[in-house]
Amino acid sequence: MKKIFIILLIVFALGSLLVFQVYAEDYTVLAPLPGTESGGKTNLQMYVPGLITLLIGLSAVVAVLRIVWGGIIYMTSDAIFGKQRGRGMILNSVFALVLVIAAYLILTTINPNLLKFNLNLEKPEIGTPNVSAPASGGAPASGN
């Protein structure tokens, strides 16, 4: 059942990307993401980077909340297992936060255009190949 759900989720995600590819023109959203407003109109090229920024911010907030919750568990527990659970929660949250920020910084350092979403695909030019025939009309002569 879990595999079917994952497959359906992947198919839905790919299908929605295809729909967005077809309908990439400007549209008016009811509640735009922060950083995606431009006169009430937006398109997918502005929406995806805003979504990435929003998800990075939300992951930072969740990590801080989990660090606080792990600290509460650590402080209120007298058992050694409770303290280990709280310490583990804090460490995992810090590692996750560092991972998210490091991924963003590495991609930005390598090339800032990696985090931009461009739907303006250029149509490739297909021409006939430039093949030059041998002058003698046969195979090239060997050097014997």
Overall description:
The chain is mostly helical and 144 residues long. It has one domain (2-115). The protein is 59% helix and 0% strand. It has helices at 2-22, 44-76, 80-110. α2 runs antiparallel to α3 (80-110).
Keywords:
single chain; 144 residues; mainly alpha; 0% strand; elongated
Count of DSSP H/I helices? 3
Radius of gyration: 27 Å
Biggest sheet features: none
What overall geometry do the principal axes of the alpha carbons give?
A: elongated
The succession of helices and strands, N to C, reads HHH
Which range does the strand content fall in?
A: under 5%
- Total domain units: 1
Count of extended strands: 0
SSE topology:
Layout: H1 2-22, H2 44-76, H3 80-110
Helix pairs in contact: 2-3
In short:
This protein is mainly α and 144 residues long. It has one domain.
